[in-house]
Design goal:
single chain; mainly beta; 3 domains; twelve-stranded mixed β-sheet; 12 strands; elongated
Length: 208
């Protein structure tokens, strides 16, 4: 009986080890990226090649209904009470939220992505899209109180923080040399497609 039980148990252990190994490999698999930040290297038909900021070559199919917006620089003073903004923040030395960039949405984009969530721009960064309810000018920047439907956050915006806004763009701006953020999805065949691209105007690198 002992021999039979051992013979029966060993295959079960082997199957379990394979299952654990497969789950581990699945857990370690890199998530599919949702955006690429970089410079367009070439455009051919409905395909563009982007060199990411980290040096990777990313080939993207341009969706027929692609939405293109320009990104232009504005000043910190353009952030008003009532503005709907997106702020990328990182934890400050005092535990507060320090902005590394702020983008002011035009009125027709108010409410876009409202809320606060982890973001992939920098380690430990978060993105908060919300309405400015208070703005206090200090010696070295502004402190904004921003409110969204599930809460609020106090954000310190140093004077040297990039501040931008969006303007209408067109597909003709997708050309070599353009600095872009392309939002993308993976197609069933494993390739990538973008249906929304933000393009820096006048050589600007979109900071978000």
């Amino acid at each position: 009986m002992t021999i039979q039980r051992t013979t029966f148990i060993r295959p079960l252990i082997a199957v379990a080890m394979v299952a654990v190994s497969s789950l581990s490999a699945f857990a370690q698999r890199s998530p599919v990226p949702t955006r690429v930040r970089g410079t367009i290297e070439s455009v051919s038909g409905d395909t563009m090649q982007v060199k990411s900021r980290s040096g990777e070559d990313v080939k993207l199919r341009i969706a027929p209904d692609v939405s293109v917006s320009g990104v232009t620089k504005i000043s910190l003073a353009d952030i008003k009470v009532g503005s709907f903004v997106g702020a990328t923040t990182v934890p400050g030395p005092d535990g507060g939220n320090n902005a590394v960039e702020v983008h002011v949405f035009p009125e027709n984009m108010r409410g876009t992505g409202e809320g606060s969530r982890p973001y992939d721009l920098k380690p430990n960064s978060s993105m908060t899209n919300a309405t400015v309810s208070e703005s206090v000018v200090g010696n070295d920047g502004h402190t904004l109180l921003v409110k969204y439907k599930d809460g609020e956050k106090k954000v310190f915006v140093p004077d040297n923080t990039p501040v931008v806004t969006f303007v209408p763009g067109d597909k003709g701006e997708l050309k070599p040399g353009a600095k872009v953020i392309a939002f993308m999805k993976q197609l069933p065949d494993g390739s990538f497609e973008t249906n929304r691209v933000s393009v820096g105007r006048d050589g600007l690198t979109p900071p978000m």
